[in-house]
Amino acid sequence: MDLSKIEDAMDEAERLKEADYTSWSWQVVEDSLNAAEQMIRNEWATQAMIDTRAEALEAAIDALVPVAGSSDKLKLSDALLEAYIIDEAG
């Protein structure tokens, strides 16, 4: 099983600082990071499941909104967050 993609995304998330981002966008990253950690411990996880979790974490990181973000960045992150929520709802 190749865990490099999910481990890279987890490392990136762990390097970020919560104080730099809005609380709601940070919460999405935390939730996605927790899900990724659970996935790599799941002995029944398939490569596709692991890759999907990695992509969800990467999307959450990309959607982070800096505390002093511009309105265009906020609009983009809102759209990404909505897509993430829809994807997670399955």
Descriptive report:
With 90 residues, this protein is mostly helical. The chain has four helices and no strands. The protein has helices at 4-15, 23-41, 47-62, 71-89. Helix 1 packs parallel to helix 3 (47-62), helix 2 (23-41) runs antiparallel to helix 3 (47-62) and helix 3 (47-62) packs antiparallel against helix 4. The longest helix has 19 residues, at 23-41.
List keywords for this structure.
single chain; 90 residues; mainly alpha; 4 helices; globular
Compact summary:
This protein is mainly alpha-helical.
End-to-end distance, in Å? 24 Å
Give me the count of strands. 0
**Broad structural category:** mainly alpha
For the biggest sheet, the summary is: none
Uncertain residue segments: none
Helical fraction equals over 70%
Q: What Rg do the Cα atoms give?
A: 13 Å
Q: What is the percentage of strand-forming residues?
A: under 5%
Broad shape: globular
The oligomeric state of the chains shown is single chain
Number of helices: 4
Chart the SSEs and their pairings.
Layout: H1 4-15, H2 23-41, H3 47-62, H4 71-89
